[in-house]
Amino acid sequence: MIYVYADDVRHAPRDTAGMTPGVLKCLNRHILSLCGGWRYNPPIMNRRRSSSKRPAHGSRRVSPSRASGRLRLIGGDYRRRQLPVLERPGLRPTPDRIRETLFNWLAFELAGAHVLDLYAGTGALGLEALSRGAAQALFVETDSDVAASLSANIATLGANGHVRRQAAMAFLSGPVTPFDIVFLDPPFRQGHAVDTCQALEEHGWLSEEALIYLEIEHECEPRVPANWQLHREVRAGDGIGRLYRRHRAA
Length: 250
Fold this sequence. Notes:
This is Ribosomal RNA small subunit methyltransferase D. By secondary structure, this protein is an alpha/beta fold. The chain has two domains: 1-61, no CATH class; 69-246, Vaccinia Virus protein VP39 (Rossmann fold, 3-Layer(aba) Sandwich), CATH 3.40.50.150. Helix content is 25%, strand content 24%. It contains six helices and nine strands. It has helices spanning 21-35, 96-105, 124-131, 144-157, 168-172, 192-202; strands spanning 68-72, 82-86, 114-118, 136-141, 161-165, 179-184, 206-217, 228-236, 239-246. A seven-stranded mixed beta sheet has the order 5-4-3-6-7-9-8, sandwiched between helices. A two-stranded antiparallel sheet has the order 1-2. The model is unreliable at 1-12 and 34-65 (pLDDT under 50).
């Protein structure tokens, strides 16, 4: 702020950051003598202001793909347990509301079930199944970091689950073990749903009356095997969740 009214002092210096205390003192005396007692108080410049947006010494930016999120289990033995998960583009855990709906549908099917969680990601569906009484779960995930995080969470819970770090289609072309419940949540808009459904049926991965939960983009109408009967359906954000029951092929 400027308190100078003398004609020959037009403006007070705005930037005094480089002035020594002696220069500032002389400046005050000079202005005081010109203005008959008005004192000029030079603004205090914050030399470190521009550095406030820079990271502190030794700090580094954390990659978004490494940032930690949380997964909350919503029912069963591990209810309310919160687990750390990696946040990755395209990694979209099934929302709590959808999981609650799905597992209400599966309430009488989970006890002792053998579960396969394809395109597992955070493993939200397979872990929820284990929490609610499934005998065991196999998680298939291609991303090594995500798979490692999921393995650590299974160990933390002490659950009977195993992680296979492998692409889903490569896994389905290997040795076969039938499963009672399959969770299938492929990346949206990449065309994996149809081929995966066909491989599950044709290669013998499904028990006689297996249940298959498929989560896909809402505009997609996948061609599922003819002996899969649509049992339930729920809207899931920008996708749709469909629960099918398999019947023995004619």
